[in-house]
Structure prediction request, 162 residues.
Amino acid sequence: MKNETAILAAGCFWGVEELLRALPGVTKTEVGYCGGGAETALYNKVKTGTTNHAEAVKIIFDSEKISYETLLLAFFKLHNPTTKNQQGNDIGSQYRSAIFCVSPEQKATAEKVKVSVEVSEKWGKPIVTEIIAAQPFYSAEDYHQDYLQKNPDGYTCHYWRE
Prediction:
């Protein structure tokens, strides 16, 4: 087993976590906040959009079972990467599409995958997903962790797109 970490933001973290956790090779997920300027992140502040944190999911994956590239291809299928600061009814910078790269190799792979998705013209609009260096990741409050496992009828705007 070769565990690696990825940090992805694609709107409300509940639905993103639920879809990614089911991928073969994903061993752990954790929802939280990344990409902001504040030294800590708590939901009551993040939800206002004033901290510039994105709702994100930290994914631990076995790279011998799923590659980072395959994980990113799934990421681009579970949300709309053409809407700036919005997924479904969720609007604000906390719901932006972003890939927080933990290494130069991840950044190179993310840029390659983003270009391939863009040239496929599947979305019909430019991809606005940010690709930036990983910043501190702050775990979300306990009630957000595994939210859709605890609340199967809870809100999500995420689903697999072909």
